[in-house]
Amino acid sequence: MAHWLMKSEPDEYGWDDLVRDGRTEWTGVRNHAAAKNLRAMTCGDRAFFYHSACAVPAIAGIMEVSREWRADGEDGKWASVEVNPVAPLPRAVPLKKLKEEAALRDMATLKQGRLSVSPVSEAEWTHICALAAMGDAKEQT
């Protein structure tokens, strides 16, 4: 199972919207690297739901990929996946905190801040879960 970070502006579609809906199609990604990441996802992969472009950008919850990619848009060059909520984080992990952590210095989203869908290593996943006071991070993998 792979891990990911997926960004959404909470004014457009936030964690609470995903929880209310029970699942959503992650559409509208128009960046080649991010679309490649969507195509690499498999059912059961976990992803952090990250609120971007807001007063305090932060990771808010954990999602699961429930359907692998399909074409998004008429030209077929973009991709989308279906995700469903797994659990909110007990404590959101703000971007500022992510940047302060030496263990996360190579994290893709910190190196390429504009990338809306990025991979998260196992070590990064475990570290972020610990920052969010998840208890045993292995339970959420």
From TrEMBL:
Residues 2-130 form the EVE domain. Pfam families: EVE. It comes from the Bacteria. Coiled coil: none annotated. InterPro entries: 5hmC_binding, EVE_domain, THYN1-like_EVE. PANTHER family: OS03G0676100 PROTEIN, THYMOCYTE NUCLEAR PROTEIN 1. This is EVE domain-containing protein.
